[in-house]
Specification:
The chain is α+β, with helices and mostly antiparallel strands. It has one domain: minor pseudopilin epsh domain (minor pseudopilin epsh fold). A 5-stranded antiparallel sheet has the order 3-2-1-6-5. The chain has a 4-stranded antiparallel sheet with strand order 4-7-8-9, covered by helices on one side. The longest helix is centred in the N-terminal third of the chain and has 52 residues. It is elongated, with a radius of gyration of 26 Å.
Amino acid sequence: MRHVRAGQRGFSLIEMVAVIVLIGIAISVVSLSFSKSMSNARIQAASRDLVAALRYTRGQAIVKGQQTALDLDLQNNTYQAPGRALIKLPAEMHMTLLTADSEQTSSMSGRIRFFPDGASTGGHISVFMGQREWRINVSWLTGQVVREEVAAR
């Protein structure tokens, strides 16, 4: 028979449950933080890709000496640079377009056109995911493409 001395007792059930609850809370906090980081990375990547497509389109206009346009389909959440594959944004994202009236092909589609001198029709494209918004501004005078995060709405 074993004898247990007063200072050698194990953990009580309440102490073990408390530790398990604390571990559960810590895991949920970490997973929520990780989830937010992943969504932030996805919207940043999508907006960066769109900026790259706009800059590519501008470069093609300058190199080829002819007008080129990036086409956007807001209803299907897609865009396409000249000579490139159609790109579809992830389902939880959507975009809006503000451009010259002459470049609106329908109520849910349009384009931003670049000219051989680098200028463009200008405008901006906003990429949304939840409360996050990234705005891509295209200067009509220089064709410069700039991406910025807009404060949560």
